[in-house]
Sequence to fold (575 residues):
Amino acid sequence: MSKDVNTGVPTDSEVILGILNNSESVLKRLYIAYFPMVLQLVINNNGNADDAKDIYQEAIIVLYNKVKTGDFELSSKLKTYIYSICRRLWLKRLTQMNRYGGDIKDFQEYLVVDDETEKNNERDIQFNKMGSALQQLGEPCKTIIEDFYINNRSMQEICENFGYTNADNAKTQKYKCLQRLKKLFFQQK
Amino acid sequence: MPAAAEKIVFSAKIGSTEMSENNQLTDTIERYLNGEMTKAERAQFEELRAKDADINSKVAEHKHFTNLIKQYGERLELEKRLNAIHDEIDVHALEDELLIHPSFVVRMWRNHHSKISVAASIAIFAVLCTLFFTGYLSNREKNYAQLVGQIQNTNHKIAQLDTKVNSLNPSSRPNTVVNPGNFRGTGFAISSNGYIVTNYHVITGADSVYVQGNDGKSFRTKIVYTEPGSDIAVLEITDSSFKTLGAIPYTFKKAESDIGENVFTVGYPRDAMVFGAGYLTASTGYRNDTTQYQISAPVSFGNSGGPLLDGHGNVIGIVNAKQTHIEGATFAVKTNYLLKAIKDIPADSLNRPLSMTGKNVLAGLDYKTQVKKLKNYVFMVRVYNQ
Fold:
């Protein structure tokens, strides 16, 4: 592919196809193309570069998930869409930090978006729970679970990595780990 | 292997060690979800799922939870990728470029306001010190004199440009006399039974009005009639100690007098009666007011309401005003209007008949004698308006 040639702003359909195909280069070009816009929005409205990064990545993840789940319909320019989501997220965060003065300096056109960021928020909560549950789980359980469920390693590989005498022992261990993880996960509020 | 599946279910029901049995169930569910079962095995397990709601929900739950783990992993992976991309961006340079910089002055102030403040304070202090030591601040008299000069200059210009009618009522000068009334004017008798005429502006706003004769006797009076248009007021002496004045020594001349006629007036600009003589200089008053004469007799505040007489013992007007800044421009209301006003007095406001039948005994006499004869008929009007 023309990875190195194509370094400019990707077209909107390129982005969608790229996300669906897990294209690293499209993601990168997308990220680089619109980050300055969001940075401008945030740093000129009581934020800093780290806030901009958080907000922007959240927006990219929202877009990414929407495209992946197939319910993404582009009703405007992608640029406007990303800006609108970032704007909304930033307003929300400003309000949470009590730094919102009731006025925001805009640099682009924007649409009214809300439900998607809400949905994303719920998922974020679940992920946060999962993250801390895994953290509490400790080793070697954490790695076993990650290897098996996230990295799709076979039980045989795991068995070898951890020096279990046979796959059944590893399975039992994995089962125990999973039970504990569930417990930790559902214990959280 | 249908036998294996059956064995699992069987052991679950008997309940050997719960752990290993659940473990095996989980294992089966995983194999089922991952599509690792044979066709027959799969069919059997699906049948079991359909029969046993408990197992069915366990399958769903397991699926959901492992998916969540997987998605969590994917999210972490995505974030890692995004962070890697982010690290390649020179955020700092972008920030500098994109931040809206406030104007030069504002930035200057933000960065250096303490220094600027100190500098300004020192500058102000230095200027004050310089002014002090050069004697500029103490050199007040010179400034003061200049100021006075300017005021005088302005006044002079106003005097040149502006001609104003000033009332002869002493109210317009600083009121120092408190005891003998708040205002003072002059009035003169128009009938022997105690009717006295003066200017309307003398008695405006009065609570009580007293008249004091040349002999020092003071009488309380009542305002009978006023005519603001021609500045005329008629008073009646109501004091019980008042008897009569005797025959009025002058008459009232209806016809207009001619320019150049000798005229004189008496009045009370101060406690003693003051005489002033002059000529009738114009047949109209201030700004061509046809109700008035202009005369050249010297008058001052307090003369208001005094009689203006010609050389033949006729009252031809009532002194009421003078023009400031012009020598000898005094004005007097023509007698005509006095007579008209007297005629307009409603009959029911008079307690006594008002007959103006004076007998002229002044004609042909010199001023000295005339004044002597009429001084008892000219009064000081004192107005109290507390």
User: Anything to note?
Assistant: The CA atoms of residues 77 and 298 of chain B lie 113 Å apart. Confidence is low (pLDDT under 50) at residues 1-16, 141-152, 171-180 of chain B. The first strand of chain B starts at residue 165 and ends at 167. The interface with chain A takes residues 20, 22-23, 26-27, 65-66, 68-75, 78-79, 81-83, 85-86, 88-89, 91-92, 94-95, 97-100 of chain B (CB under 8 Å).
